[in-house]
């Protein structure tokens, strides 16, 4: 049961203090990428402890808040946290994004987006469990679910930030990392709310809730995303994140990037899937497609469902033509994804972060 002290806040709107300033879209920023391999170690586990209200919080409460938004949670070391505290976490995540020049295409951004999505995408709206709320991917069996192969790299990398800010919950850290990644790779500003509280291994969702890249049926993403509460337009908007990153033979078994700019957020995924001729890759690995012209880009059987189904394809065409609309729709759908199943207390403010 929630403690009376669990939530104690002074919404900024009421105190008259401005939220973090909203950034303009960085739609056209394209970053060159440096590259290393240095996975930070760290078990990244549990936090315990009861409700704590720090001195600052008591002073702020006594003084009417002093323009600070704060609350307490049941995770270790939590105290009063304001927008500026989360901006500091944002900046620390931004700092590690490209610190290992040899990692993949030079950025942890894509794998942070995938971590945020897989932590969130287990939500089931009928049972109301799963989702990012409890940061359960730290635990087995969820950490060992096939769909999460390779995500230990992102979790371990973020341990460095967790040790700098031990008060942040894993659910908040991972979803915030997903926001940082999108914004720092040139994507739209994603409003984000804090409030996830770490759970235990008992809270792990069952296996099989995330989509299977090998499944070519349009029914499959509908089954998975309708379960979370998304519609066709939102599903297609979310899929545009495949502009970023790549498949790895030692993680999913598939191989290669979807676009030529895997560390720049854009509508390229839609442009590529519509504009190129896709042929089956000749190899001993799982069935996937490569572009006929260069053989360098790839599509999963699951990606092809989005151009083989007329309702999905309509949205693919819309986003290929209109990057601004894509950015707007992605922002809404991604925010919704990261918040699935999180019991935010009423009045929890949306934070918007400055890019680093
Ligand atoms: C039908 C739905 C989806 C399927 C079947 C799917 C499947 C996959 C697969 C097989 C990989 C390769 C993993 C690896 O080998 O490293 C991947 C990577 C990725 N996915 Fe998805 N995905 C889906 C939806 C999404 C959504 C909704 C997002 C985000 C909003 C997303 C973001 C990413 C990103 C950024 C990567 C690259 C990760 C990296 O470079 O390490 N995916 N996805």
TrEMBL record:
Enzyme superclass (EC): oxidoreductase
Reactions that this protein is recorded to catalyse: 2 Fe(II)-[cytochrome c] + H2O2 + 2 H(+) = 2 Fe(III)-[cytochrome c] + 2 H2O
Disordered: annotated segments: 124-143, 192-218
Gene3D superfamilies recorded: 1.10.520.10, Peroxidase, domain 2
Segments traversing the membrane: none
Its EC number(s): 1.11.1.5
Keyword Coiled coil in annotation: no
Compartment annotation: Mitochondrion intermembrane space; Mitochondrion matrix
Protein family (similarity comment): Belongs to the peroxidase family.
The protein's name in its UniProt record: Cytochrome c peroxidase, mitochondrial
The species this protein was found in: Orchesella dallaii
């Amino acid at each position: 049961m929630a403690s009376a002290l669990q939530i104690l806040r002074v919404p900024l709107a009421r105190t008259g203090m401005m939220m973090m300033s909203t950034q303009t879209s960085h739609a056209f920023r394209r970053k060159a990428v440096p590259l290393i391999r240095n996975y930070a170690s760290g078990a990244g586990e549990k936090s315990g402890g009861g409700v704590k209200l720090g001195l600052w919080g008591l002073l702020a409460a006594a003084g009417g808040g002093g323009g600070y938004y704060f609350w307490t949670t049941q995770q270790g070391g939590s105290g009063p946290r304001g927008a500026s505290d989360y901006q500091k976490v944002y900046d620390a995540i931004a700092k590690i994004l490209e610190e290992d020049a040899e990692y993949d295409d030079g950025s942890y951004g894509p794998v942070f987006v995938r971590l945020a999505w897989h932590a969130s995408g287990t939500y089931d709206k009928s049972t109301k469990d799963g989702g990012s709320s409890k940061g359960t991917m730290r635990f087995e069996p969820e950490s060992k679910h096939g769909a999460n192969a390779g995500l230990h790299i992102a979790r371990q990398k973020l341990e460095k930030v967790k040790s700098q800010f031990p008060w942040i919950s894993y659910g908040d850290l991972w979803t915030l990392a997903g926001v940082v990644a999108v914004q720092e790779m040139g994507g739209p500003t994603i409003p984000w709310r804090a409030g996830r509280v770490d759970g235990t291994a008992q809270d792990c969702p069952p296996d099989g809730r995330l989509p299977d890249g090998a499944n070519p049926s349009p029914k499959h993403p509908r089954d998975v995303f309708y379960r979370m509460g998304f519609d066709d337009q939102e599903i297609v908007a979310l899929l545009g994140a495949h502009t970023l990153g790549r498949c790895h033979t030692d993680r999913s078994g598939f191989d290669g990037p979807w676009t030529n700019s895997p560390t720049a957020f854009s509508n390229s995924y839609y442009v590529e899937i519509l504009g190129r001729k896709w042929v089956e890759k000749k190899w001993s690995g799982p069935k996937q497609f490569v572009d006929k012209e260069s053989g360098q880009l790839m599509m999963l059987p699951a990606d092809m469902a989005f151009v083989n189904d007329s309702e999905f394809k309509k949205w693919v065409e819309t986003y290929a033509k209109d990057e601004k609309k894509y950015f707007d729709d992605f922002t809404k759908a991604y925010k919704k994804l990261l918040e699935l199943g999180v019991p935010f207390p009423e009045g929890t403010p949306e934070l918007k972060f400055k890019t680093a």
